[in-house]
């Protein structure tokens, strides 16, 4: 069932359709292919109402639609065509089928890479290279009797053995498989999960919950030292909205639903959650809860902890949930906060009641160019001080600004080369701005039309005080579009000796500039020290604003030609960068979580007492370490 | 250990040093005027935010740090904020430099003239200059020259101008401000002035530290200051002062800059302009008043040959690498960075250790002239030949033989010795001696200190009617102290082996353990006197053992430390080197036990101990005139205070010294080898 609500009102349907198109605005290519269309002004187009109902994105066999050794859909990828131009395949995204003329130039000059030097991935998943499963026979026997689907097919297991950290994908491209789960189970509902957890406890089997597989903290990696049979509990088939409560504006949803399905289905009833992490196409509600995820539009809708009203989780001790849905309680420490961020170490989140909102009437992108990053940060700080941040506001540094330009598709650009384009852009609009220093903020406003316009003016007025000039909706929209394709770009880089990844932190306002500068410089330094032959791409953006600080996102990539162990070098540099973040007053993570990648810093992050508290909860809830993914602690 | 970055204990002989270029050569061959007017386009810090001196002042006054302290002071004192603000501006006004290229050009011209008259050459390691140039572009730079002369800082700016490097801003003591015109000239050549003491003055500290940090962070200019705090009157490096080092390091700790280069610079003078002034000052003999006309006008100064100057720009030390693994910068995450906080113990220790390492780095690249070795030998000889019946002085060829021996020894210890190997040793000796006519004289083929006022008569008979024995003693002491200041230039080379030699001498047995106790007692005792890195006793001991074993002076087994046959000469030389200090510290102890009345204040300490020592010297009960040095006396007192043998009273009796006679007595006996350095003593110290 998609919804128990009465979706009869034609008014609501109209809004729903409009909302769908808005989502399509940053996710998908408009049907008519007119990429110049502005997101906020999608005209009514022929939709196929109802066609999306019940249709779920994620099949049990992920391999049917998704890559086994890269990001996203199998049909969507970047490649350099015979003319050496970059192209994006498929039909799903705005960029799909388009040529991106400036990308090659940018790519070659930024990384010192060359299209002549290829590092292709292993083409097919070789099942025989996967270790045969260690099965717990009695567990399997009893499981069969429950009728819950499961598999120990090698492909199914490999798909659940990783997230999207660089080292994970790199190994897959090389056809290397470490410890993978011994079997995969697809429960269909809460009760199925209860049964599975009971059986696992009874037979001492290790369970690892699997949502959308978008983890970037090594959270899904099987601990190599685990000797028990490891079972991946794939929640993807628990993907229904169980009810919508319009009086209280809440929806009760199964935790395996992925972001795009949740929004699509709610939109059909005229609602949304507004929770849009960049991974929302694939990441799941349970995953968000388990990692304390953060969405792009948190300024209006809040982060996952603000959105959640009620959580049901199955643990080896039984089910944990609150007895009512009161909007706030003073009942001791909030037990939700043991669940959120537990990263699959305590149990399986099965059902969540979330806040929903009526879909916004109007949406508008925007962008502002600042003479330099310092001014940009000062502007964001002021916006936060006045508490007038739009749904999203992000500030990219100069390198990312250039990168954004390199990704302009052919149709929207008459420029012949990347540099020409940049020069033209700069000369025509921003005289006096140094093209090597300027930076851009992208904006997304949402709400009713009048208020959006008012809000927009307020923000642009503040920006003007910091030397910011409005740079059009197009630039803003492209910025958001990029967040969805950027993960595909990493795969392209990996075809040509370029590896990289992003990581994030949160930091008080007065530290933002220093941390950006120091971490970027540390990355450059470490690369040099570790023998990287070409200067790396080391860039950042401020992606979220808060009253007391901001979230900063770093991108880092380099050409690894000449290195014998590039992944190791990558990891050393990332490690050093994290040390630098901590030394500069940044947090261990704003939203990616700790997993196994960052757990060495947990003690200094939360203090020994803090760590002890978390341990004692684990010891009580899961004394036999059934949820044995060994994240966090 | 991070200290490795600055210096390493192991085999000092392997140290590689750059070559020197004489910059005066070009000055002698081309126009000074053109040089003073040359095109000057230094490279700057890549992260510079260019600003004028005024803008700088504004940045300081607008800083959150200063705002915070101003409102704090206003709350505490009840004064109006504006009032405190005005005071802050006034402080800044009094402090601020006003660097002007025109002034630098003026100095470039006049100093060229002066330098050419005074000095034979000014030699600079150009590789060091290149390293510095690189460093200036990468990160904010802190220049840390050694301090032996008023000349130092003008010389530094002169050199940087010569090499087209960014001109520094220099922390200078307020005492210059007494000379109005000079003060303003210096201000315009980049000096900023700091009051000598501002103890608890929060506001002053805030203005001062913010000012320095602002200049540094913005890459406005390299910041230069003297780690030793003041000019060393003795040519020994002084215990580093930590205040400014703390300030400059702060922006790194707090993540405001990525890194910072600390550049030790060693300035060695073959002859120091202030030579005899210093000796007089330490003896309490009135000296010509320092006034504007003081230094350069004196014909006497200008007519003499001051030999050469060597300036060695050391390896820039990355503060980041230095702090790696030693400082956890996240300790600054919990309090806003603009709120002043007492540095944690971790930071204090780190700053202290770094300061010592940097001073040692300065020491290591100090160029030693043959004269330094000669002075050491002549001083030792002087004291030994005081015994009745001995002919005064040393035969020239004996001196030559000895100095060649010492040359080889010092090289093995890693000294940066400039000995012209292509010339005959006797030649080197005589030309070195000729540069110091006021200190040595040669008669009948014998060399001795130029102590006698006239004729070859013994001190008693020579006394003329108008000089008292005391005056005579003091005028001899001027010569001895001057010579000692040359010997002191080489002290850092011999220090660790010499402490070991003394320890062997003093130890109750040849047991290694005993020798070590004795070594660490002496090291501890003398740590206000010499540069000894705190907490590095074991390393120092090992280094000393290593050097003495390597040069065949010692044999060290599992249990024992034995002096070899041929090692005797070395051991005697080394112990004699520290003997005056040993005696000095003993005298200070004796004075405190015998003479220190209830009312002895810190102020009276120097005059009274001076009287005490003069009395004993005149009575022939003391061997070393050198113990008259107020520097030594102060250091000894500081050591006793540190060890708790003497206490400074607070409250009504402010400044009164309270002597723990039992402890002072036992320290004196231990120094004199009368008491064994038991474990207990060492442990307590
Ligand atoms: C391209 C890209 C963009 C991203 N953008 C964002 C972003 O904008 N904001 C953000 O917050 N994160 C982002 N992430 C990180 C990632 O998407 C989030 O951590 C997300 O919440 C993970 O959800 P998932 O369903 O994919 O969980 P998975 O990756 O499958 O699992 C993550 C962890 O949660 C546990 N887990 C999963 N489901 C459950 C459950 N039902 N019950 C208990 N435990 C469970 C797993 O055991 C694992 O430890 C991004 C990642 C990528 C690759």
From TrEMBL, chain A:
<keyword id="KW-0444">Lipid biosynthesis</keyword>
<dbReference type="InterPro" id="IPR016169">
    <property type="entry name" value="FAD-bd_PCMH_sub2"/>
</dbReference>
<keyword id="KW-0808">Transferase</keyword>
<keyword id="KW-0597">Phosphoprotein</keyword>
<dbReference type="InterPro" id="IPR016171">
    <property type="entry name" value="Vanillyl_alc_oxidase_C-sub2"/>
</dbReference>
<keyword id="KW-0007">Acetylation</keyword>
<keyword id="KW-0274">FAD</keyword>
<dbReference type="InterPro" id="IPR004113">
    <property type="entry name" value="FAD-bd_oxidored_4_C"/>
</dbReference>
<feature type="binding site">
    <location>
        <begin position="291"/>
        <end position="294"/>
    </location>
    <ligand>
        <name>FAD</name>
    </ligand>
</feature>
<keyword id="KW-0443">Lipid metabolism</keyword>
<feature type="active site" description="Proton donor/acceptor">
    <location>
        <position position="553"/>
    </location>
</feature>
<comment type="pathway">
    <text>Glycerolipid metabolism; ether lipid biosynthesis.</text>
</comment>
<feature type="binding site">
    <location>
        <begin position="209"/>
        <end position="215"/>
    </location>
    <ligand>
        <name>FAD</name>
    </ligand>
</feature>
<protein>
    <recommendedName>
        <fullName>Alkylglycerone-phosphate synthase</fullName>
        <ecNumber>2.5.1.26</ecNumber>
    </recommendedName>
</protein>
<dbReference type="GO" id="GO:0005778">
    <property type="term" value="C:peroxisomal membrane"/>
</dbReference>
<dbReference type="InterPro" id="IPR036318">
    <property type="entry name" value="FAD-bd_PCMH-like_sf"/>
</dbReference>
<feature type="domain" description="FAD-binding PCMH-type">
    <location>
        <begin position="177"/>
        <end position="359"/>
    </location>
</feature>
<comment type="pathway">
    <text>Lipid metabolism.</text>
</comment>
<dbReference type="Pfam" id="PF01565">
    <property type="entry name" value="FAD_binding_4"/>
</dbReference>
<dbReference type="InterPro" id="IPR025650">
    <property type="entry name" value="Alkyl-DHAP_Synthase"/>
</dbReference>
<feature type="binding site">
    <location>
        <position position="490"/>
    </location>
    <ligand>
        <name>substrate</name>
    </ligand>
</feature>
<dbReference type="GO" id="GO:0008611">
    <property type="term" value="P:ether lipid biosynthetic process"/>
</dbReference>
TrEMBL record, chain B:
<dbReference type="InterPro" id="IPR041728">
    <property type="entry name" value="GPAT/DHAPAT_LPLAT"/>
</dbReference>
<dbReference type="GO" id="GO:0005778">
    <property type="term" value="C:peroxisomal membrane"/>
</dbReference>
<dbReference type="GO" id="GO:0019432">
    <property type="term" value="P:triglyceride biosynthetic process"/>
</dbReference>
<dbReference type="GO" id="GO:0016287">
    <property type="term" value="F:glycerone-phosphate O-acyltransferase activity"/>
</dbReference>
<dbReference type="GO" id="GO:0031966">
    <property type="term" value="C:mitochondrial membrane"/>
</dbReference>
<comment type="similarity">
    <text>Belongs to the GPAT/DAPAT family.</text>
</comment>
<dbReference type="GO" id="GO:0008611">
    <property type="term" value="P:ether lipid biosynthetic process"/>
</dbReference>
<dbReference type="InterPro" id="IPR002123">
    <property type="entry name" value="Plipid/glycerol_acylTrfase"/>
</dbReference>
<protein>
    <recommendedName>
        <fullName>Phospholipid/glycerol acyltransferase domain-containing protein</fullName>
    </recommendedName>
</protein>
<dbReference type="GO" id="GO:0008654">
    <property type="term" value="P:phospholipid biosynthetic process"/>
</dbReference>
<keyword id="KW-0472">Membrane</keyword>
<feature type="domain" description="Phospholipid/glycerol acyltransferase">
    <location>
        <begin position="141"/>
        <end position="270"/>
    </location>
</feature>
<dbReference type="InterPro" id="IPR022284">
    <property type="entry name" value="GPAT/DHAPAT"/>
</dbReference>
<keyword id="KW-0012">Acyltransferase</keyword>
<comment type="pathway">
    <text>Phospholipid metabolism.</text>
</comment>
<dbReference type="InterPro" id="IPR045520">
    <property type="entry name" value="GPAT/DHAPAT_C"/>
</dbReference>
<dbReference type="GO" id="GO:0004366">
    <property type="term" value="F:glycerol-3-phosphate O-acyltransferase activity"/>
</dbReference>
<keyword id="KW-0808">Transferase</keyword>
<dbReference type="Pfam" id="PF19277">
    <property type="entry name" value="GPAT_C"/>
</dbReference>
<dbReference type="GO" id="GO:0006631">
    <property type="term" value="P:fatty acid metabolic process"/>
</dbReference>
<dbReference type="Pfam" id="PF01553">
    <property type="entry name" value="Acyltransferase"/>
</dbReference>
């Amino acid at each position: 069932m998609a919804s128990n609500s009465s979706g009869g009102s034609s008014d609501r349907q109209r809004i729903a359709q409009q909302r769908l198109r808005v989502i399509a605005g940053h996710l998908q290519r408009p049907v008519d292919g007119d990429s110049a269309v502005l997101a906020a002004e999608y005209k009514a187009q022929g939709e196929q109402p109802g066609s999306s109902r019940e249709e779920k994105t994620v099949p049990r066999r992920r391999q049917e639609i998704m890559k086994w050794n890269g990001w996203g859909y199998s049909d969507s990828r970047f490649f350099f065509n015979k003319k050496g131009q970059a192209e994006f395949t498929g039909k799903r995204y705005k960029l799909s089928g388009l040529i991106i003329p400036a990308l090659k130039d940018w790519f070659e000059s930024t990384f010192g890479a060359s299209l002549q030097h290829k590092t292709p991935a292993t083409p097919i998943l070789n099942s025989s290279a996967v270790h045969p499963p260690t099965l717990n026979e009695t567990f399997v026997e009893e499981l069969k009797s429950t009728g819950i689907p499961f598999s120990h097919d090698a492909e199914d297991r490999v798909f659940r053995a990783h997230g999207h950290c660089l080292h994970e994908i790199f190994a897959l491209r090389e056809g290397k498989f470490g410890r993978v789960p011994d079997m995969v189970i697809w429960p269909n509902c809460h009760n199925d999960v209860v049964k599975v957890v009971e059986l696992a406890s009874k037979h001492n089997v290790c369970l690892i919950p699997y949502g959308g597989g978008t983890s970037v903290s090594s959270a899904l990696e099987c601990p190599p030292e685990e000797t028990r049979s490891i079972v991946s509990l794939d929640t993807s088939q628990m993907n229904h909205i169980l009810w919508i409560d319009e009086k209280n504006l809440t929806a009760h949803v199964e935790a395996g639903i992925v972001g795009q399905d949740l929004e699509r289905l709610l939109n059909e009833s005229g609602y949304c959650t507004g929770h849009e992490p960049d991974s929302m196409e694939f990441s799941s509600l349970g995953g968000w809860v388990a990692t304390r995820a953060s969405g792009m539009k948190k300024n209006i809708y809040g982060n996952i902890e603000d959105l959640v009203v009620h959580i049901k989780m199955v643990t080896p001790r039984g089910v944990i949930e609150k007895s009512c849905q009161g909007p706030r309680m003073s009942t001791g420490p909030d037990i939700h906060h043991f669940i959120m961020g537990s990263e699959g170490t305590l149990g399986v989140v099965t059902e969540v009641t979330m806040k929903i909102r009526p879909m916004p009437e109007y949406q508008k992108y925007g962008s502002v160019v600042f003479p330099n990053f310092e001014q940009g940060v000062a502007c964001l700080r002021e916006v936060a001080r006045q508490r007038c941040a739009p749904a999203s506001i992000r500030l990219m540094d100069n390198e990312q600004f250039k990168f954004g330009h390199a990704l302009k598709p052919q149709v929207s650009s008459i420029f012949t080369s990347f540099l020409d384009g940049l020069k033209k852009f700069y000369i025509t609009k921003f005289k006096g701005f140094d093209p090597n220093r300027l930076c851009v903020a992208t904006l997304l406003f949402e709400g009713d039309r009048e208020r959006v316009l008012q809000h927009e003016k307020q923000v642009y007025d503040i920006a003007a005080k910091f030397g910011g000039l409005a740079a059009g909706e197009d630039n803003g929209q492209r910025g958001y579009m990029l967040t969805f394709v950027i993960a595909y770009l990493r795969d392209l880089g990996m075809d040509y000796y370029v590896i990289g990844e992003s990581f994030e932190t949160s930091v008080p306002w007065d530290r933002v500039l220093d941390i950006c500068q120091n971490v970027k410089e540390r990355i450059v330094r470490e690369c040099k020290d570790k023998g990287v032959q070409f200067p790396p791409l080391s860039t950042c953006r401020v992606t979220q604003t808060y009253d007391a600080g901001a979230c900063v996102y770093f991108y880092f990539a380099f050409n690894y030609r000449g290195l014998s162990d590039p992944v190791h070098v990558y990891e050393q540099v990332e490690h050093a960068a994290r040390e630098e973040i901590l030394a500069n007053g940044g947090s261990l993570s704003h939203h990616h979580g700790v997993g196994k990648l960052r757990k060495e810093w947990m003690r200094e992050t939360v203090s020994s007492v803090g760590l002890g508290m978390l341990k004692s909860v684990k010891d009580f809830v899961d004394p036999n370490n059934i949820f044995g993914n060994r994240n966090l602690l | 250990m991070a200290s490795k970055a600055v210096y390493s204990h192991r085999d000092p002989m392997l140290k590689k040093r750059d070559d020197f270029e004489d910059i005066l050569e070009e000055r002698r061959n081309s126009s000074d005027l053109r040089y003073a007017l040359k095109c000057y386009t230094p490279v700057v810090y890549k992260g510079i935010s260019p600003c004028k001196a005024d803008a700088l002042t504004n940045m300081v006054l607008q800083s959150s740090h200063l705002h915070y302290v101003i409102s704090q002071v206003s709350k505490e004192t009840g004064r109006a904020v504006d009032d405190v603000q005005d005071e802050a501006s006034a402080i800044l006004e009094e402090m601020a430099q006003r660097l002007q290229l025109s002034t630098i050009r003026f100095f470039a011209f006049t100093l060229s003239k002066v330098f050419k008259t005074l000095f034979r050459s000014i030699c600079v390691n150009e590789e060091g200059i290149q390293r510095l140039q690189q460093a200036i572009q990468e990160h904010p730079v802190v220049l840390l020259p050694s301090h032996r002369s008023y000349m130092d800082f003008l010389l530094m700016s002169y050199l940087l101008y010569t090499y087209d490097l960014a001109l520094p801003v220099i922390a200078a003591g307020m005492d210059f401000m007494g000379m109005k015109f000079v003060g303003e000239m210096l201000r315009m050549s980049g000096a900023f002035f700091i009051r000598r003491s501002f103890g608890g003055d929060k506001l002053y500290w805030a203005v001062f530290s913010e000012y320095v940090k602002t200049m540094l962070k913005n890459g406005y200019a390299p910041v230069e200051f003297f780690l030793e705090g003041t000019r060393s009157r003795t040519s020994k490096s002084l215990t580093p002062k930590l205040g400014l080092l703390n300030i400059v390091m702060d922006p790194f700790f707090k993540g405001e800059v990525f890194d910072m280069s600390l550049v030790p610079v060693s300035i060695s003078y073959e002859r120091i302009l202030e030579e005899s002034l210093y000796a007089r000052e330490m003896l309490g003999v009135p000296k010509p008043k320092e006034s504007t006309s003081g230094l350069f006008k004196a014909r006497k100064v200008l007519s003499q040959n001051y030999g050469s100057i060597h300036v060695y720009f050391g390896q820039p030390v990355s503060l980041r690498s230095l702090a790696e693994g030693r400082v956890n910068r996240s300790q600054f995450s919990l309090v806003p960075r603009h709120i002043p906080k007492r540095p944690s113990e971790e930071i204090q220790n780190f700053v202290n250790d770094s300061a010592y390492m940097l001073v040692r780095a300065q020491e290591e690249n100090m160029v030693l002239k043959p004269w330094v070795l000669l002075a050491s030998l002549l001083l030792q000889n002087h004291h030994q030949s005081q015994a009745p019946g001995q002919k005064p002085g040393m035969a020239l060829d004996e001196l030559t033989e000895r100095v060649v021996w010492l040359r080889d020894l010092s090289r093995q210890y890693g000294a940066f010795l400039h000995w012209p190997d292509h010339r005959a040793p006797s030649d080197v000796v005589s030309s070195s001696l000729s540069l110091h006519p006021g200190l040595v004289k040669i008669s009948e083929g014998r060399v001795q200190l130029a102590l006698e006022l006239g004729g070859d008569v013994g001190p008693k008979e020579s006394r003329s009617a108008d000089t008292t024995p005391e005056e005579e003693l003091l005028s001899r002491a001027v010569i001895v102290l001057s010579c000692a200041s040359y010997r002191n230039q080489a002290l850092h080379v011999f220090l660790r082996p010499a402490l070991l030699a003394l320890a062997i001498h003093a130890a109750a047995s040849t047991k290694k353990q005993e020798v070590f106790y004795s070594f660490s007692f002496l090291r501890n005792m003398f740590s206000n006197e010499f540069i000894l890195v705190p907490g590095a006793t074991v390393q120092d001991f090992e280094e000393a053992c290593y050097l003495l074993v390597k040069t065949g002076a010692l044999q060290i087994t599992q249990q024992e430390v034995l002096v070899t046959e041929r090692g005797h000469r070395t051991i005697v030389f080394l112990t004699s080197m520290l003997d005056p200090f040993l005696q000095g510290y003993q005298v200070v102890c004796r004075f405190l036990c015998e003479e220190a009345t209830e009312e002895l204040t810190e102020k009276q300490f120097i005059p009274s101990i001076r009287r005490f020592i003069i009395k004993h010297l005149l009575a022939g009960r003391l061997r070393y005139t050198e113990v008259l040095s107020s520097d030594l006396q102060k250091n000894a007192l500081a050591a006793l205070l540190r060890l708790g043998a003497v206490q400074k009273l607070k409250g009504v009796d402010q400044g009164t010294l309270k002597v723990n006679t039992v402890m002072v007595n036992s320290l004196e006996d231990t120094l004199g080898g009368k008491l064994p350095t038991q474990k207990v003593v060492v442990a307590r110290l």
